[in-house]
Design brief:
7 helices; 8 strands; about 35% helix
Length: about 200
């Protein structure tokens, strides 16, 4: 692998014990937790949507998170929890400019993460994390994030009404009223859809 030759890499990392998500995995050791979307709010803060594979325990996890001082602005979105936090093990990966392919799965203190990285970046990660295990290295990934029917309809409506035009022909609030959903729900749907499209772009490069 050359310095600039990006590979698809699936890896497993040990989550530091001082991170909020580690505490949740200890409280629910049999639950597979997914971090479905992460966005930077500032240099020190991120926002993430958390859910579980089983769709169980989400209310109990929400209650536990309310006690975590690293987590703020908790909101329930169906089977998802939206939150804001300062300390994040993903920040160590993003700091090295690796492209993370969401979702990230977490269980029993370990996270399984898919990234695009070169050899030098992997060496840096090995120094940053106490334990790191490479599960797979490949030139391509055969997984493709597909948009749901609802996401396709929302994106098509947003495009037709000029939401993606510059300057915009319709605001987020106006678009939400047109589609008859809340502004928060629309914003979540657009971000998740954009994340899938961007991920697919990198997969097809």
């Amino acid at each position: 692998m050359t310095k600039d030759n990006l590979k698809y890499i699936k890896l497993q990392v040990e989550i530091p014990k001082n991170i909020w998500i580690y505490n949740i995995t200890q409280e629910f050791p049999d639950e597979i937790i997914t971090l479905n979307y992460s966005t930077s709010l500032s240099k020190t803060e991120r926002q993430v949507f958390l859910s579980t594979i089983s769709k169980k325990n989400i209310n109990e996890i929400y209650s536990k998170l309310t006690l975590e001082n690293q987590v703020n602005d908790l909101e329930m979105f169906g089977d998802n929890i939206k939150m804001r936090f300062k300390l994040n093990f993903l920040q160590k990966i993003l700091h090295h400019k690796l492209t993370i392919i969401f979702p990230v799965t977490v269980r029993k203190g370990y996270a399984t993460i898919e990234v695009f990285a070169n050899q030098n970046q992997i060496k840096l990660l090995e120094k940053v994390f106490g334990k790191i295990k490479i599960l797979k290295i490949s030139d391509k990934i055969n997984k493709k994030e597909e948009l749901t029917i609802n996401q396709k309809e929302i994106l098509e409506t947003a495009y037709m009404l000029g939401f993606f035009s510059y300057p915009r022909k319709i605001t987020l609030t106006e678009l939400a009223k047109h589609i008859k959903v809340s502004k928060a729900t629309l914003s979540e749907n657009l971000r998740l859809s954009e994340n899938k499209i961007i991920s697919n772009y990198f997969l097809n490069k």
